[in-house]
Amino acid sequence: MIPVAVTIALAAFSIAFVLSLWRLVRGPDAIDRVLALDTLYINAIAIIVLLGLAQGTTVYFEAALLIAALGFVGTVALAKYLGRGSVIE
Amino acid sequence: MIAELLVSLFILVGAFFGLTGSMGLARLPDFYTRLHGPTKATTLGVGGVLIASILHFSLMGPALSLRELLIALFLFLTAPVSAHVLAKAGVRRGIASRAPLPDELKKKSAEG
User: Which of B11, B23, B37 is facing A6, going by the closest CB pair?
Assistant: First the structure.
């Protein structure tokens, strides 16, 4: 039962990944692209955790944690740069 | 059996919310509405998958597995912060909204 659910969820998150890639290409403003990148890394975390579930290992969680931390910092830095012209005042 | 059912349920609920959030990002009309999809629905979707992972590795593994809780906690703390920062950057860049902006924001975005 779990493999079926994981397969469905992987398909759903892959579609979600492609949808946010589409928004990344489409724009129209730079801040929309930052939002698309934010969604992209959240979807990547979900896919990594699902892969860990499918293979029955816990070695992927450090990678997911790293992506979560660096993705947040990247989003805030890009948003500050686009909103104010500088990252650190 | 019940554990498997529960894990599958959380995975499917998470997948549904994740897909819904990204569809919102792709289809909604302007930046401020688009902000809702990823920052709320997708975060909830990842939360569901992480709860499923905690249940799976705790109930079928040798010991309690709480490392996913760290990821979930971090995501749930940072998603509102990044949404707020993105919305502020959008207002400062003067991005058009379908709804009328409040007066004080109009003044601020006119200043630059």
Answer: B11
